[in-house]
UniProtKB/TrEMBL annotation:
The organism of origin for this protein: [Clostridium] aminophilum
GO cellular component: plasma membrane
UniProt name for this protein: ABC-type antimicrobial peptide transport system, permease component
Membrane topology: Multi-pass membrane protein
Transmembrane segments: 21-45, 318-344, 365-393, 413-440
Entries under InterPro entries matching the protein: ABC3_permease_C (IPR003838), MacB_PCD (IPR025857), Macrolide_Exporter_MacB (IPR050250)
Length: 457
């Protein structure tokens, strides 16, 4: 018999026993839905973990620190992160760029509001990867320090004279200052707070208040109000301009955060607590990181966190997939039971087919096709229903999880993801499970004695 004939006989057999077929298909439907939804949750969580790690920083960037606290250890001069040392990192294979990062604490004031802010200096070339919602990047031709500000910096300001200045209300977070207006900035915060103290200095004179500088903001980093990203609370400026400003303010005095030599005098060059190394390939990050560690530096990257999250997501995916597989196993048992009952009911029909000279393989194929059709029908309906459940899960939970993870961002997160390969694999697996469950009954049908089958009532 041709495949078309076998398919026609199988469909006719299934249609004659509609209730039994429906219940068996329902079992496969539940099994496929369970395993697809469970695996989609695992895939979605894996992608969510990946995006969460990327929010913390680039997956191809390594952050390098002095070994221990080198700026305080006077015997660690050979491990100081200087411009020369950071430049040498570029010679490491697979390193695209390396640059130092200089951070200094400043006090910013506008109107009645003020905030202690960490001013971060990086080279202008390193700023190009930062997405701006408005404005431009600082330029080498700029006169003085120009700023890039994150979307949440304005919420850090408070009124020092207000009675509730230490209260924190998440719903009441608002931008209290306008960075489009000039921002008064105090670099020498120690002298500022000393001048505010009514006590006199060691020589009986009151400390002089430090000079205030007006800094202009030229760029505003991408980010919705109330949402969080890695630059939300960052204030960034050109490294060279920041160093020039600090040298001008402190002259021959030690710059806060910079180490001194054994005589207590500042070094003639800047020493950085941090440097960043960009790698050309994510697969090479761990190798470059190990090289930097062998040089005596602390080196960290988001790949460490990514590996941990991948292990967690793989474990979750295995557990969820196992739960779904149990449902599909139960469905396979149901298919086997249905096919066995079908053989018992059609024993006489099988005997007549054998007497008429029907090929044994055709009899086996007929039952295998019947079992495969049950698996296919259950797989198709289960897959369609799985897509519906996935949409509901993402609409109900995606926005809530995005808000809790990223500080109120209204963009939803896909918690359940069904890629094309999963849909195709689910259909194929359902058909194979059906045929596997029907294999033993098909073999039994093929081995029935024709005479015994005909005599069967």
């Amino acid at each position: 018999m041709s495949f078309r004939d076998l398919l026609k006989i199988s469909l006719g057999s299934l249609s004659r026993r509609r209730l039994r077929t429906f219940l068996t298909v329902l079992g496969v439907f539940i099994g496929v839905t369970s395993i697809v939804v469970m695996l989609s949750l695992g895939i979605g969580l894996k992608q969510f973990f990946m995006s969460s790690v990327e929010q913390l920083g680039s997956l191809t960037q390594i952050t390098v620190y002095n070994y221990g606290d080198a700026t305080q250890d006077k015997n660690a001069e050979s491990k100081f992160l200087t411009d020369e040392k950071v430049d040498s990192f570029r010679s490491i294979p697979h390193v695209q760029d390396a640059y130092p990062v200089l951070e200094t604490s400043v006090l910013m004031k506008q109107g009645p509001y003020e905030a202690n802010v960490t001013l971060t200096g990086i080279p202008i070339r390193a700023m190009q990867s930062i997405q701006l919602r408005e404005g431009t990047y600082p330029k080498e031709s700029d006169n003085g320090v120009k700023l890039l500000v994150g979307n949440m910096v304005g919420t850090s300001f408070f009124d020092p004279k207000a009675s509730n200045r230490y209260d924190f209300d998440m719903d009441g977070m608002e931008q209290k200052v306008d960075f489009h207006l000039p921002m008064f900035t105090i670099f020498d915060t120690d002298s500022y707070y000393a001048a505010k103290n009514p006590a006199s200095g060691d020589d009986g004179t009151k400390p002089t208040a430090p000079k205030k500088y007006i800094l202009d903001t030229v760029g505003y980093i991408e980010g919705k109000e109330g949402s969080w990203n890695r630059y939300s609370y960052s204030v960034i400026t050109d490294l060279d301009q920041l160093k020039a400003q600090l040298r001008k303010i402190y002259r021959k005095r030690a710059i806060p955060g910079q180490p001194t030599n054994k005589k207590g005098k500042p070094y003639r060059y800047f020493i950085y607590n941090e440097a960043r190394v960009d790698v050309d390939d994510m697969e090479e990050v761990e190798i470059v990181q190990k090289t930097l560690q062998d040089m005596g530096y602390q080196a960290t990257s988001q790949m460490e966190y990514l590996k941990q999250t991948q292990q967690t997501s793989n474990m979750i995916q295995a557990v969820l997939g196992g739960i779904g597989a149990v449902s599909l196993l139960v469905a396979a048992i149901g298919i086997a039971n249905t096919m066995m009952m079908s053989i018992y009911e059609r024993t006489r029909e099988i005997g007549i087919m054998k007497v008429l000279g029907c090929d044994m393989r055709d009899i086996r194929s007929m039952f295998l096709i019947e079992a495969g059709l049950i698996g296919l029908l259950g797989g198709v309906f289960g897959l369609v229903f799985s897509y519906g459940i996935s949409v509901v899960i993402n609409r109900l939970l995606g926005g809530a999880i995005a808000g809790s993870e990223f500080g109120g961002d209204t963009a939803s997160v896909a918690i359940s993801v069904i890629p094309i390969w999963l849909a195709a694999a689910a259909l194929l697996f359902a058909v194979l499970v059906g045929m596997a469950a029907g294999f033993f009954p098909a073999q039994r049908a093929m081995k029935l004695s024709p005479l015994s089958a005909i005599r069967n009532d």
